[in-house]
Amino acid sequence: MLYCPECFQQFKINGYFSQKIPKKEISLYFPKVLFPKQIHSNKVFYLEKIDSSILEGDAIITTLKNLTIGVQTADCLPILVADKNKKVIGAIHAGWRGTLSGILKKTLEKILSLGIDPEDILIAIGPHIQSCCYEVGEDLIELLPDKFKTSPYLIKRDESFYLNLSHLNLFQAKDLGIPEKNIWISKECTSCNKEKYHSYRREKNYLYSQVSIITLKDV
């Protein structure tokens, strides 16, 4: 059900992505995971102590040991962040709104402000809707800065346009000095892989989700 991306395995980072799970069962499988109430924003929470309130936003950063944080997705990008020295972790939900408003950039800027070296930051982007399936209309295209209206960010096939969300987020990370070799991007498309993943665009419901979680283990 869960797998650890390659960039985390080398440094024994406890970050994992799942295949689809029924929504009603997520609390059973992951009863102690802190998930934010996702609102397709660029709001980032930095947790310095356990907070029992409902966190409405789309990214969590923490330096707390043994606290598991996570996000739920069904086409959007699940992004897990950690540093090689296991000082800080982050979990991010990045749809097109969060991506265009720079949620990964904001998250990484906070992590860098904690004194973490860009060379030490590891980023894993889990299964999401890929550019093979993510057709977008003129209303969204108009929101893109001009530099993102060409390949590899926006791809034209026949008379349709397809957005590559992972490349937009890759740009944000590299722009802050994160080495591309530290960034792992899943090649699996949630829309293509019906047996493994749930896709809101394909199914038009939220009966299932993928779960992405990460923990700083106290070792």
List keywords for this structure.
Cu_polyphenol_OxRdtase_sf; S-methyl-5-thioadenosine phosphorylase activity; globular; alpha+beta; 14 strands; CNF1/YfiH-like putative cysteine hydrolases; metal-binding; single chain; 219 residues
Detailed description of the structure:
The protein has one domain (2-130, 165-215): CNF1/YfiH-like putative cysteine hydrolases. The chain is built from seven helices and 14 strands. The chain has helices at 6-9, 23-29, 96-100, 103-113, 138-141, 165-175, 200-203, and strands spanning 2-3, 14-18, 21-22, 44-47, 59-62, 68-73, 77-83, 89-94, 121-125, 135-136, 154-157, 160-163, 183-185, 208-215. A six-stranded mixed β-sheet has the order 4-5-8-7-9-13. Strand 11 and strand 12 form a beta hairpin. The two termini are 25 Å apart. GO terms for molecular function: copper ion binding; hydrolase activity; S-methyl-5-thioadenosine phosphorylase activity. This is Purine nucleoside phosphorylase.
Strand fraction equals 25-35%
Strand order of the largest sheet: 4-5-8-7-9-13
What's the story with the biggest beta sheet?
6 strands, mixed
What's the oligomerization state?
single chain
**H/E element sequence:** EHEEHEEEEEHHEEHEEHEHE
Mean pLDDT: 96
Tally of DSSP β-strands? 14
- Estimated structural class: alpha+beta
Number of domains: 1
State the end-to-end CA separation: 25 Å
How large, in whole angstroms, is the Cα Rg?
Answer: 16 Å
Share of residues in helices: 10-25%
CATH architecture: 4-Layer Sandwich
The CATH class is identified as: Alpha Beta
Give the low-pLDDT segments. none
Looking at the structure, what is the overall shape? globular
* Continuous helix count: 7
What do we call the CATH topology?
CNF1/YfiH-like putative cysteine hydrolases
CATH superfamily: CNF1/YfiH-like putative cysteine hydrolases
Family: Belongs to the purine nucleoside phosphorylase YfiH/LACC1 family.
Keywords: Hydrolase, Metal-binding, Transferase, Zinc
Organism: Caldimicrobium thiodismutans
GO molecular function: copper ion binding; hydrolase activity; S-methyl-5-thioadenosine phosphorylase activity
